[in-house]
Amino acid sequence: MSTEERDTLLVALFFERAGNVISGEEMSRRLGISRVALHKRIEYLRAQGLPILSLPRRGYTIKEIPDLLIPPVYLALSKIGRLGRPYHYFEWVDSTNRVAMELARSGAPHGTLVVAETQTRGRGRLGRTWFSPKGQNLYFTLILRPDIPVLEVPQLTFLVSVAITEVVRERLHLDALIKWPNDVYIKKKKVAGILMEMESRDKRLLFLLVGVGLNVNTPLGGFPPEISNRATSLMAEGGKRYLRPQLLAWLMEAIEKWYDRFMGGCREEVLRYWREHNFTLGSPVQFEGGRKGWAIGVTPQGALLIRAVGGSIISKEAGDVEVVK
Amino acid sequence: MDTRELLELVKALAEMPVDELELEVEGVRLRIKKAIPKPVSEKVEVPSASVSVPSVAHRVAQDVGLSPTFPPDAVVVRSPIVGTFYRSPSPDSPPYVEIGDIVEKGQTLCIIEAMKIMNEIESEVKGEILDILVENADSVEYGQPLFLVKPFS
């Protein structure tokens, strides 16, 4: 067992019994290490930021699972799957996509996850920035390496929005819906954005970066004025704080589940969930800087079909489409 | 001879078993050659008489779906996906490359965006940018030529 695996087990034990005292003797036994070695690991985890309390002659305790994204916390909460490991944690980065790009180019494996507490240059489309205050929300980039033709990659954009929407709806019971192609909204305000980047060679995908910004615990009044009327957070909608490492673990689990379905040939399921949980189809939309029409469908490849005023049908693969309120 | 007469002439020629016609009227010499319909591509509508201007030849050819001719030594960089072509990382930043620039192998030439997936297109060779065949923010098709790069040997 590696030191990381042992630390993960130790933290998982603390979380399982959060609020209760566990004796040093029991811990040593369960981990198969000496009391001295245990003491060293606990000192190390404390230095990492875990709030472990020592109670003389009784043992150790953690009052509650801390809202920290440091590796021992995330790894203890996440199931051992393929996505989300290796786990790279940073207190701050310029952009998680930029860091992931560097890692992917030097061969980082499928499933590698880059997480940051804050981004100094969080990226949106076309050089726009993503609001990334420290310690409040989730900012991460996942590296995927599916062996598929480049032409099929756009379908994966739906997949990630479907996974996020499902977690917010099923685990948190908030009314999340998707705006074409992949933004996640609650009550017509954006709660999550996805920006993907890819590299390909000879029409095959080399890797795909899935960059996600999810507003978790930014308070209602915490957004800058220029986005305050169209941005929201899970806390603003749900009325309570959410545990980011737990949420991240659920997201990885959900992305993996949908990814396996997709790669296993059940691509219609992704499209069906998308159709059933979006608010773009059937709405009047504005596109290409002022043209008006109605969103009438999506193609299996993910392009949006718009019936423009005047009758012509347009298929859009990219660009801004605004749902007219 | 006015446009109407000229068009009638072209129309008449199209129906005749004649491939080429040359005539001189009032000091204007005119030569019309019938294009032989070839099965170039299933989508193409072959015009009965076509005008070609060399400098925009490849653009015209692109529009009608014919395969354009490029300098034999140039590397054609094509779009791997259907999407929107961007010459710079953001609207306020300068383009990745200009005509005449020397690019390294692996240097980013542009971004193609499809459904919020950013695809950085890199040069496969070290060389000089001979031409940029698409305007910023244009929609591009799968396999559409984007750049001509003259490789350094």
Task: Explain what this protein looks like in three dimensions.
- The complex is a heterodimer of chains A (325) and B (153).
- Chain A has helices at residues 3-16, 24-31, 35-48, 71-77, 96-105, 154-170, 234-238, 244-263, 267-276; strands at 53-55, 59-61, 87-93, 113-119, 138-144, 176-179, 183-186, 189-201, 204-214, 284-287, 291-298, 304-308, 313-316, 321-323.
- Chain A has 325 residues and is α+β, with helices and mostly antiparallel strands.
- Chain A folds into 3 domains: 3-61, Arc Repressor Mutant, subunit A, CATH 1.10.10.10; 71-276, Bira Bifunctional Protein, Domain 2 (BirA Bifunctional Protein, domain 2), CATH 3.30.930; 284-323, SH3 type barrels (Roll).
- A 7-stranded mixed beta sheet of chain A has the order 3-4-5-9-8-7-6, with helices on both faces. Chain A has a 5-stranded antiparallel beta sheet with strand order 13-12-11-10-14, with no helix packed on it. In chain A, strands 1-2 form a two-stranded antiparallel ribbon.
- In chain A, strand 1 (53-55) and strand 2 (59-61) form a beta hairpin.
- The mean pLDDT of chain A is 93.
- Chain B folds into 2 domains: 3-33, no CATH class; 73-151, OB fold (Dihydrolipoamide Acetyltransferase, E2P) (Beta Barrel).
- In chain B, 14% of the residues lie in helices and 33% in strands.
- Chain B has helices at 3-15, 57-64, and strands spanning 20-25, 28-33, 75-78, 83-86, 102-103, 108-114, 117-122, 127-132, 139-140, 145-151.
- In chain B, strands 3-10-8-5 form a 4-stranded antiparallel beta sheet, with no helix packed on it. In chain B, strands 7-6-4-9 form a 4-stranded antiparallel beta sheet, with no helix packed on it.
- The chains are: A alpha+beta (325), B alpha+beta (153).
- The A-B interface holds A 125-128, 150-151, 153-154, 156-157, 181-182, 194-200, 203, 208, 302-303, 317-319 and B 80-84, 86, 89-93, 113-120, 122, 139, 142.
